[in-house]
Amino acid sequence: MHGYSVAPFTIEHDDSVYSCVHDRKLGTQGTDAERRRLVLEYLQHLAVSIDTFESMAQQIFGRPIPQILLIHANRLNAQTLDQTLSTFEKRGCTFVTLPVALADPAYRSTDLASKQFGPSWLMRWAKARNMKLSVYGQPDPTGWTAEQAAHLCKS
Fold first, then answer.
1. Collapsed DSSP state (helix, strand, coil) of residue 46
2. Structurally, how many domains does the chain consist of?
């Protein structure tokens, strides 16, 4: 009716947690050193997340697939988008349009909702295949950002 396309994302990286700390702590009273620390932890967590989701795709499909990144519109992502994209490029990733990614046969796989480990389609596909994977989504944020989020970002 509206012409929307479903984007079955496969990579998520808790950007909302980092964004919350960025906006609630660093937006008004944070130091430059704290901002640099948050960005460093954010990009390190992104790299771990990429590794994790690439491993999941390899286990499910026996090959790499075109990944679709879930990224939210927020101040932190606006300020770090170049660094985020560079993180992918340094790993040898190239960027394709959503229709090109969705043309991969992986995206025609049967999926089931996955409540326990999050909504990444990789988890949904593993669940539909009754597969036990060695990893289930990215690890939770750790370090200074996680400590700050525990106090600032309770839902």
1. helix
2. 1
Cα–Cα distance, 14 to 99 (Å, whole number): 25
Q: Which domain holds residue 71?
A: 15-152
* Residue 9 placed within a domain: no
Closest of 22, 81, 97 to residue 46, by C-alpha: 81
Phi, psi of 69 (to 5 degrees): -90, 130
Phi, psi values for residue 63, rounded to 5°? -165, 160
Predicted TM-score of the model (pTM) = 0.90
Domain assignment present for 7: no
Establish if 10 belongs to a structural domain. no
| CA-to-CA dists, residue 95 to 14, 37, 91, 126, angstroms | 21, 28, 12, 25
Structure-token pair, residue 32: 């430059």
Q: Is residue 120 part of a domain?
A: yes
Residue type (1 letter), 61: F
pLDDT tens readout for residues 47-102:
999 999 999 999 999 999 999 999 999 999 999 999 999 999 999 999 999 999 99
- At what angle are helices 32-61 and 143-152 packed, to 10 degrees? 100
The answer to whether residues 98 and 118 touch, using CB atoms and an 8 Å cutoff, is no
